[in-house]
């Protein structure tokens, strides 16, 4: 501790030594360039890969509905039931028709075998042989027709139970119990949230580069950047906007994303050398953006800079710094050093 009668020259020497010591303790960084990726950011619209409306494949009256809007459905679940009275009646008729056709085929085969045997012994005429063979061919055709009718009636019966083609959520119900439907009538709509994608309109000036890179990241609502699993670029541009439609394929089961949401999509265009410094070194005062740069006497001087894009904890410097400049990493320590040197000069 200095005494009150300490000579002035000793006081100045002490302050100067303190200033030099602080300058040596000040943590600095030599400005260098580094390769940074240039990106284009576009707005994208989330949609489900699988979203559809299930329609009736047979006519009838809706007798039961098992799911409603926002219900979770598993693949193969019965969504609703259509009355099957007419379909069951046609099925029974088809079964009876098949039995008749089987009987006629059996009789035709037996008759042909008998005629064929005596024809070989020259005991039957050619016309009798031809007639028996034609009857057999006709019976075979009738049997095939009856069998096909049975399969069709079975299918119509199965259509009375409307099955979920995939798992997901019900988004809309189009019918009520007791309503009569016909083939093609919409019954229920659903969406699979496990498989999503993002649609983007890409300006034609970036199409070639994006097509070569085929890389993209999607900003989730949480702030996390999600890398795309793949990309599909349509081979033609919109004649009105001259933009290319791009589909960004996402990994499965992404939480927090839903069809219809708007998201930001980032696509890399290439890398360039840029001056990047830690964001902590930047002084923000109202509209001023500056850093402390060490001069030839290793003393910090405030210098205004113009900022570019931010990447993580670093910020691009567009102007104000050159390669080789020494900057202070802690603006507060640099300011303290300046104040200490100013006190020394005043003394």
TrEMBL record:
<keyword id="KW-0175">Coiled coil</keyword>
<keyword id="KW-0732">Signal</keyword>
<dbReference type="InterPro" id="IPR058624">
    <property type="entry name" value="MdtA-like_HH"/>
</dbReference>
<comment type="similarity">
    <text>Belongs to the membrane fusion protein (MFP) (TC 8.A.1) family.</text>
</comment>
<keyword id="KW-0813">Transport</keyword>
<dbReference type="InterPro" id="IPR058625">
    <property type="entry name" value="MdtA-like_BSH"/>
</dbReference>
<feature type="coiled-coil region">
    <location>
        <begin position="91"/>
        <end position="156"/>
    </location>
</feature>
<dbReference type="Pfam" id="PF25917">
    <property type="entry name" value="BSH_RND"/>
</dbReference>
<dbReference type="InterPro" id="IPR006143">
    <property type="entry name" value="RND_pump_MFP"/>
</dbReference>
<dbReference type="InterPro" id="IPR058792">
    <property type="entry name" value="Beta-barrel_RND_2"/>
</dbReference>
<feature type="signal peptide">
    <location>
        <begin position="1"/>
        <end position="25"/>
    </location>
</feature>
<dbReference type="Pfam" id="PF25954">
    <property type="entry name" value="Beta-barrel_RND_2"/>
</dbReference>
<feature type="domain" description="CusB-like beta-barrel">
    <location>
        <begin position="198"/>
        <end position="267"/>
    </location>
</feature>
<dbReference type="GO" id="GO:0015562">
    <property type="term" value="F:efflux transmembrane transporter activity"/>
</dbReference>
<feature type="domain" description="Multidrug resistance protein MdtA-like alpha-helical hairpin">
    <location>
        <begin position="92"/>
        <end position="160"/>
    </location>
</feature>
<dbReference type="InterPro" id="IPR058627">
    <property type="entry name" value="MdtA-like_C"/>
</dbReference>
<feature type="domain" description="Multidrug resistance protein MdtA-like C-terminal permuted SH3">
    <location>
        <begin position="275"/>
        <end position="327"/>
    </location>
</feature>
<dbReference type="Pfam" id="PF25967">
    <property type="entry name" value="RND-MFP_C"/>
</dbReference>
<feature type="domain" description="Multidrug resistance protein MdtA-like barrel-sandwich hybrid">
    <location>
        <begin position="50"/>
        <end position="186"/>
    </location>
</feature>
<protein>
    <submittedName>
        <fullName>Uncharacterized protein</fullName>
    </submittedName>
</protein>
<dbReference type="Pfam" id="PF25876">
    <property type="entry name" value="HH_MFP_RND"/>
</dbReference>
<dbReference type="GO" id="GO:1990281">
    <property type="term" value="C:efflux pump complex"/>
</dbReference>
């Amino acid at each position: 501790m200095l005494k009150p009668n300490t000579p002035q020259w000793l006081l100045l020497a002490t302050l100067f030594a303190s200033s030099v010591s602080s300058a040596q303790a000040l943590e600095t960084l030599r400005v260098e360039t580094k390769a940074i990726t240039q990106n284009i950011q576009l707005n994208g619209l989330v949609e489900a890969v699988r979203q559809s409306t299930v329609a009736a494949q047979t006519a009838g009256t809706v007798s039961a509905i098992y799911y409603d809007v926002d219900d979770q459905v598993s693949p193969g679940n019965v969504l609703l039931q259509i009355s099957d009275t007419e379909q069951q009646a046609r099925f029974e008729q088809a079964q009876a028709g098949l039995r008749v056709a089987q009987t006629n085929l059996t009789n035709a085969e037996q008759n042909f075998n008998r005629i064929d045997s005596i024809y070989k012994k020259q005991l039957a005429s050619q016309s009798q042989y031809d007639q028996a063979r034609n009857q057999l061919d006709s019976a075979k055709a009738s049997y095939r027709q009856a069998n096909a009718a049975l399969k069709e009636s079975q299918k119509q019966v199965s259509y009375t139970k409307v099955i979920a083609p995939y798992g997901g959520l019900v988004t809309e119900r189009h019918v009520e119990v007791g309503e009569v439907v016909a083939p093609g009538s919409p019954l229920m709509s659903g969406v699979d949230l496990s498989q999503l994608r993002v649609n983007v309109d890409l300006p034609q000036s970036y199409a070639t580069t994006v097509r070569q890179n085929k890389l993209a990241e999607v900003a989730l609502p949480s702030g996390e950047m999600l890398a795309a699993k793949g990309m599909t670029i349509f081979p033609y541009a919109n004649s009105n906007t001259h933009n290319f439609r791009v589909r960004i394929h996402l990994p499965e089961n992404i939480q927090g994303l839903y069809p219809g949401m708007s998201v930001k999509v980032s696509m890399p265009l290439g890398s360039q050398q840029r001056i990047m410094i830690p964001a902590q070194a930047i002084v923000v005062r109202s509209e001023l953006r500056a850093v402390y740069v060490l001069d030839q006497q290793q003393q910090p001087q405030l210098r205004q800079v113009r900022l570019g894009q931010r990447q993580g904890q670093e910020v691009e410097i567009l102007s104000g710094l050159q390669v080789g400049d020494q900057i202070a990493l802690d603006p507060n320590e640099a300011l303290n050093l300046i104040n200490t040197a100013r006190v020394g000069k005043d003394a």
